[in-house]
């Protein structure tokens, strides 16, 4: 299955968290870049979330809904493997950091939190029971 299908299965209650994480790690996602090659992030619940999108259409939906965004403007982005985000990028950022995928898609978003088994143990937030979960539109991820 591809990443979007794994997300849909998980949100429907028939997904396999391991398969979802594996597919995310293998998938190339689009990560918007801000000035100075910084990745676009949002903070929510004490966690910094790297925003990632499964394709240009998902990124465009976010751009249309982003506060103060310019839906007709161009967004710089990098194509990055999910594994690279989790294993190489997350450890370089200050504080707990996870990845939020397709946050503008009410039924297609997914969070990969800074939990053991998702990010490297040295940057994981320990004591969390839930490893992978979705988010709903309107939440600031």
Give a short overview.
The protein has a domain of 96 residues.
Number of helices: 4
User: How many strands, what sense, and barrel or not for the largest sheet?
Assistant: 4 strands, mixed
The quaternary state of the protein chains shown equals: single chain
- Give, in order, the helices and strands: HHEEEEHEHEE
Overall body shape? globular
Structural class: alpha+beta
The fraction of residues assigned to DSSP E strands is 15-25%
- What is the typical, i.e. mean, pLDDT? 87
Q: Tell me the distance between the termini.
A: 25 Å
Q: Please, could you describe this protein's structure?
A:
It comes from Streptomyces spirodelae. This is SseB family protein. This protein has 141 residues and is α+β, with helices and mostly antiparallel strands. It has a domain at 28-123. The protein is 27% helix and 23% strand. The chain contains 4 helices and 7 strands, in the order H-H-E-E-E-E-H-E-H-E-E. The protein has helices at residues 3-12, 17-26, 56-65, 82-89; strands at residues 28-34, 38-39, 41-44, 47-52, 77-81, 97-101, 110-112. The strands form 2 sheets. A 4-stranded mixed β-sheet has the order 3-4-6-7, with no helix packed on it.
């Amino acid at each position: 299955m591809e990443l979007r299908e794994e997300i849909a299965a998980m949100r429907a209650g028939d997904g396999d968290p391991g398969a979802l994480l594996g597919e995310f790690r293998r998938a190339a996602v689009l990560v918007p870049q801000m000035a100075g090659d910084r990745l676009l992030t949002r903070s929510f619940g004490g966690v910094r979330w790297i925003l990632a999108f499964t394709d240009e259409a998902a990124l465009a939906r976010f751009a249309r809904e982003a506060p103060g965004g310019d839906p007709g403007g161009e967004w710089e982005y990098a194509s990055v493997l999910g594994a690279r985000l989790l294993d190489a990028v997350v450890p370089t950022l200050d504080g707990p950091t996870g990845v939020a995928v397709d946050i503008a898609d009410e039924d297609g978003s997914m969070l990969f939190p800074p939990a053991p088994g998702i990010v490297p143990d040295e940057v994981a937030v320990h004591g969390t029971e839930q490893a992978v979960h979705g988010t709903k539109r309107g939440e600031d991820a």
